[in-house]
Predict the 3D structure of the following.
Amino acid sequence: MSRAWKIIFTIAIIAFILGALCILAGVVTGGDMQRVQDVFSAAYNIEDKLNAIRGLMGISPLN
C-alpha cells in the first residue's frame, strides 16, 4: 500500500510542476495573470464551486 501512495504522490507532484510550468510559460510569453485566471475559471467553473463551499460552511459568497 505504501508503494501505491508513493506512485500517486509522484504523479500529483509531476502534474503540479507541469501546471506551474505552463502558467510560467504563459506569463513569460506576454500573458497577464488576469487572462490566465479567466481561462482557468472558465474551464473549471471555480467561482461557483467556491461559492458552494462557502455556502456550506456558512460564509457569505464574495459576489
Q: What stands out?
A: The chain has three helices and no strands.
